[in-house]
Protein 1
Amino acid sequence: MSLKFDIVVIGGGPAGLAAAYELSRRGFKTLVLERGRRPGSKNLYGGRIYMSSIEKICPELSKEIYKLGRRVVREVIMLTHGGTSLNIEIESNDWRGGVVTSLTRFVEWLAQKAEEAGACIVTSAKVDAIHVHGNRASGVRCGTDNILADVVVDAEGVNRILLEKAGLVPRLSPGDVALGVKEVYRVDPREIEKIFDLEEDTGLALLALGEVLDYLTGGCFMYVDKSHIHVGAVLYLSNYARFRRTFPEVLDRLYRLPMFRKVVKIGERVEYGARLLPVRPLPRAEMDGLVTIGDAGGYLVHIGPIIRGVDYAFVSGICAGRAIAELLEKERRPPSLASFRSAFNKYVRETSLMRDIELFKRVYTYYEAEDIYSRYVKFLVDFFREYLEVKNGVKSLNETLYMSMRKHGLSIWGLAMEYLRKFRKM
Ligand SMILES: Cc1cc2nc3c(=O)[nH]c(=O)nc-3n(C[C@H](O)[C@H](O)[C@H](O)COP(=O)(O)OP(=O)(O)OC[C@H]3O[C@@H](n4cnc5c(N)ncnc54)[C@H](O)[C@@H]3O)c2cc1C
């Protein structure tokens, strides 16, 4: 069967649905094809959506997003070594740490918004190929159906299988991605508030590095949501061969730490899953009639503990929707790639997306340095433990610092050089 739409969107995740919402509300006939059985069923992330860019481009929708979860008011970075954890905690009622919510809840909400705006969302519909004629994409094949469209929006996520099939991007290599594994615990909201000392609408984000992941690149996380707690680990795949544990073993060890132990005590495990996420900026593949957004378009920033995937998937979707709508209204024919890029850049400039991606390109290699997850973590934990613990007499700050640095092969001169070579760029 052959069908014709103004726009066909591949993938009903945050990026695809945001584009579909924007295009449909401007009156364009938009079809979303999602391989999952229902919107949200195939989507997985850590637990937090940063809000600053969403607030800028969609202030009304951002109010609704805040209601989907808990506003992060407390953030903890936990450095772990030798059975000890050093916690760096920041707490403020006006902290802009985003919202902790489940991605399924967010995607279900966005799908409803897109449908109310007029989008047609078909689930259990796996796209098999993008039709390319000459230098222009003209539609997609989904089973036995050929769907023609003025613009194909590829929002298929990080794996980019269709783009790879079309010869537009190379196959992902282990160095490009990390593997994320997570569990979700259901907990009575009142218990959550009592145990973590939170209000009805406030939440907590925690990231742990070092021993919890055998000092390898990556880390573990905990996000405290309305009535769920999300716990997981992210390991750079370039290190997988050296990983001596299974992920369940990593999580078991995590649950021995006091902050995490509370979760298992009070909650019931209701979900688990795994997925890849980029650790390097992925090259973008576009052509006349084909626009790529979200993870598929490389619109994700992963800088140390900060992962901005969902907000930038949403922002790239909304801005792509605005650009396509503007061009289709003005030119009344399928837009060229050049005109799309210039319109997209105009809309996206309202946010920090492009600047953040440029920064990501400059600094991502520094976050692959194992020293950050190993030597520096061990040094900081040992130093604070030595200095603060009273075993016999009180210790001098300088002497403890000197001894701890020596123990971990660090020197002031070496650190200064390291700072000049690497860290000042971070
Ligand atoms: C462990 C982990 C932790 C993370 N933590 C965070 C975090 O805390 N905060 C944050 O902002 N980001 C986080 N991210 C990143 C975030 O999940 C992604 O950046 C975001 O989901 C990208 O949205 P998307 O719409 O581009 O892709 P996706 O969410 O992957 O959606 C793509 C959709 O396309 C569908 N699809 C794929 N192929 C086809 C096909 N052939 N036909 C039809 N449908 C198809 C899929 O089923 C899916 O629904 C994390 C990721 C992982 C793995």
Protein 2
Amino acid sequence: MGNYDDLLTEEVKDYAKEIGAALVGIAGADILNESLDEYFRPEDVLPGCKSLVVMSLHIPDGALEIMRRGKAAYSYNLFGYAYLNRELDYIIYRMSCFLEERGYATTPIPARGTAYGAPKKGYGMISFRHTAVAAGLASFGLSGIALTKEFGSRQRFAAVPTTAPLHPAEKLIDQAEVCDGCLECISHCPAGALSLNPPHECRMGDKVFRFARSYYDKCIHASRGLSTKAWPGAAFNPKIDVPYSENPSAGKLYDQLWRERDEGIRLSENSEATYGATLCGRCMAFCSAGHEAMKRRLRDDQKETGHTDNLVIQNDGSLKPLQPEPKALGKKLLGLS
Ligand code: B12
Ligand code: SF4
Ligand code: SF4
């Protein structure tokens, strides 16, 4: 057992709640140093890093539910992405200052994007999903998204690496505790960007997690409004299909983003980068764990109201209830069969 500052750990957790974090936990730097690739480990971004303060913000259920119904992606794009990232940046900044004022070093990492110059495409300075799992807040769904008992898939994460000796979580959550293997995430991906054949394997602590490999370029193509397959039947589905190219150069992607897309999408965006038309997000939106967590949190007298009918948009524009069932492959990967 390490030599931890339990009092500071409690102060950090209280402060995280005070500045608005929905969930907060502490990840030990050691298990992440072993689990993540060189250059993207806590010790690479902060020499002497001992722990990471991991925080999340909940994406309001309504923002995803209205998107599942095919009516609007606008609420999700703002309150699940653009604005939420600002709120995350705010809590990262505050937590970083809180720790530095107490004499500890930190590295504040922005909530979105990857660092220019990093040696691997599609890698953040630190993977927040991995930090959330290491902090005992979440486990990997088969989608690769970090799922919590409280919100399922419906949250974004941030982590502040620090030299402070905070007390880390002692128990990691098993995948089967949060994911039922229904595979709705994979079957609703419009870009074929998620593959379980074979799954990606991640070792952390004494556990092995299995989840879909994600193809960066395919996801970007759909999630940046370049594909008419993104949200078939939905009012906000892009109306122009920009041809997909393998490994597009950054310049080509930039051109596509700003010139070749549906004009309506460009006009629906604004200077605050709301990505007005679509961010896809279907693997998050259709995740059963998210919908079930929403139902659990509703008051008893609200269980039959709002979005609990589970209606989702069909390709022909009609609405039908989603009826997810665990699948044989899903159960096998989760060790349930
Ligand atoms: C780059 C990035 C992406 C990339 C790559 C994602 C990925 N799986 O790593 C793309 C564009 C695909 C993407 C998509 C999405 N993202 Co994103 N993304 C990030 C970012 C900036 C970095 C992630 C990272 O470091 N990955 C690298 C390593 C560590 O991942 P890995 O698990 O070891 O390995 C993966 C890849 O290497 C790949 N892979 C490995 N081997 C192989 C082999 C082959 C052949 C191939 C093809 C791929 C492959 O698949 C592995 C499993 O996913 C983070 C922010 C952050 N700093 O963490 C947000 C983040 C992961 N994204 C997020 C979200 C919400 C999304 C989307 C839902 C989009 C949206 N609407 O917002 C989708 C979800 C896709 C999915 N199911 O995984 C959230 C997740 C929140 C949560 N609850 O878990 C994060 C944490 C942002 C945040 N601040 O909250 N994202
Ligand atoms: S965001 Fe869309 S395209 Fe990207 S992995 Fe999820 S479902 Fe697939
Ligand atoms: S959609 Fe189903 S299989 Fe996919 S992550 Fe969510 S609960 Fe797991």
